[in-house]
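Bumping my old thread because nobody answered last time. Still need a sequence for this structure:
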């Protein structure tokens, strides 16, 4: 499962440089001119999970399969993009397919890298991009409203319910605020997500700083972090330049030494993924055996059958029980057999809420 994160921002804020570094590819052309990204680039990366290696070692697994996540690098937007400026809104559809949106905000001074607005102001950049997303949502909703209104007047209950949500979104957007700030009842949350609005997606802000500010941030990144706190969003400070250099180091010891010299304990990718998991309420459970050790991503609060369904739909449909061992117990006992003998394996039913780090084996019948 993992999650899919769209990377957006103005031209020359470091989006493609960051994308290249995070995915350790050169799929996105990073260059010092606007619109160097002409097609959305998708990078698939492994979710860092040190517990998985430990499980694989104990289970003597032949394969180690981490959870995966996608980064979608979307071309730089400019003011007026929703009306066709720059490359227009042809890329906005790609944002709709993502679970969350990461706003890359320029938080560094560099005379050699031009800025589309000729000034460094991360909040102004944020507002420019977000305005374009809001305008795209407004256009989408206004187009749908006429047809929904006709159906609602003819007695269509579903259309009437959807129309009410569309009007809530329009009211929110017309005040100049993203739709994610609208108050929606729990009963309407699924239908609300069904509107597929760009500005209802969870957001995280990436403050792209210079190399010297990678460990402690700077005045620009402090402003970004404060804004994230005010909005109930998440923020992470990353230096795209440093991530680019890290991407070239294949040896883990070299990477660790390099990070230590600049005052960091983990790469920006790790921090970005951890932040994204927190933002979306995601967690990890494991399966482990001689064939493979594997990490699976689920939402917090999911039941055992829902977790089983991530592996295969039949596992959820024919769920009987989940044989479950806490990660700490699995490691302490030295594997599944010893954990079972020590009474640490539990048989959990359909109502069991999976915990982060659970090592699970599903029994099912279809």
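Sorry it took so long. Here it is:
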């Amino acid at each position: 499962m993992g999650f899919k994160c769209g990377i957006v921002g103005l031209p020359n804020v470091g989006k493609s440089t960051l994308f290249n570094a995070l995915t350790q590819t050169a799929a996105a052309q990073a260059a010092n001119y606007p619109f160097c990204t002409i097609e959305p680039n998708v990078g698939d990366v492994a979710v860092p999970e040190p517990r998985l290696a430990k499980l694989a070692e104990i289970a003597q697994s032949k394969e180690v399969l981490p959870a995966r996540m996608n980064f979608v690098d979307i071309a730089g937007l400019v003011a007026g993009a929703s009306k066709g400026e720059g490359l227009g809104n042809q890329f906005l559809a790609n944002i709709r397919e993502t679970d969350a949106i990461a706003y890359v905000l320029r938080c560094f001074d560099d005379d050699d890298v031009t800025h589309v607005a000729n000034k460094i102001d991360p909040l102004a950049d944020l507002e420019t991009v977000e305005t374009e997303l809001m305008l795209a949502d407004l256009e989408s909703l206004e187009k749908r409203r006429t047809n929904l209104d006709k159906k609602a007047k003819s007695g269509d209950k579903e259309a009437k319910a959807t129309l009410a949500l569309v009007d809530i979104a329009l009211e929110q957007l017309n005040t100049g605020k993203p739709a994610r700030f609208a108050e929606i009842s729990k009963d309407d949350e699924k239908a609300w997500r069904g509107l597929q609005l760009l500005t209802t997606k969870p957001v995280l802000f990436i403050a792209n700083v210079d190399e010297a500010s990678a460990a402690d941030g700077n005045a620009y990144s402090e402003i970004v972090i404060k804004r994230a706190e005010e909005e109930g969003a998440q923020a992470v400070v990353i230096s795209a330049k440093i991530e680019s250099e890290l991407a070239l180091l294949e040896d883990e010891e070299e990477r660790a030494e390099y990070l230590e010299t600049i005052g960091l304990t983990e790469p920006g990718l790790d921090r970005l993924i951890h932040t994204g998991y927190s933002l979306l309420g995601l967690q990890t459970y494991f399966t482990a055996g001689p064939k493979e050790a594997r990490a699976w991503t689920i939402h917090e609060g999911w039941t055992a059958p829902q977790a089983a369904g991530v592996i295969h739909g039949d596992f959820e449909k024919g769920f009987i029980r989940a044989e479950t061992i806490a990660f700490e117990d699995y490691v302490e006992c030295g594997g599944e057999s010893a954990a079972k003998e020590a009474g640490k394996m539990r048989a959990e039913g359909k109502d069991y809420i999976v915990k982060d780090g659970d090592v699970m084996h599903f029994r099912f019948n279809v």
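The first strand starts at residue 4 and ends at 8. Let me know if any region looks off to you.
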